[in-house]
Amino acid sequence: MQPFTLTSERLTLDMLTDDDSELMTAHCQDPIFEHTLTIPWPYAKSDAEFFITTLVPEWWEDDDEYTWAIRETGKPELLLGVISFRVYNDTIGYWMGAPFRGKGFMKEAVAEVTRWVFSTGRAEVRWEALVGNEASAAIAKSLGFVYTGVEPSSSEYRGGTHPPSWWATLTAPGENPSDTTEFAALPWPSSTRPMR
Asked: Domain total for the chain?
């Protein structure tokens, strides 16, 4: 797949560039990322450069994963965060830099990516986050994802582990929810705080 840009009311989702490596490195010093993301830890600028110049282009070319930079429209130099759709298992993943949280940017970005995914004919998008990642869960819940329980993470974490993760599914408009999900329509974990 050739990379392409998505736009929403306030955001432009486009390609990461070399110029983003410094700000990505700064964002990824956030201590919360040690426990919520698969990124190397500690996170170095060389990790950001490898991600941007090697991994992301390879994933696009191989149709494995589509990864976008999240930017406020009109501010192309400012990286707010990153969002990805993993083609191989229909899951969405995302992170936002600390200075830009609480503004609704991530909810808007996730809504735009899921809209595009459904436009391709896919019936479902799956979400996962490590157990306890309440911020990510609150976004998924607010967009109508249906919580389906705890499963091992699909991505390998540091040390080769697949720790317990919360999972949820969003069904495309007009599609019937999957009846193959063992834990369909469970209540969201009570610790998940509402979106503001």
From this structure: 1
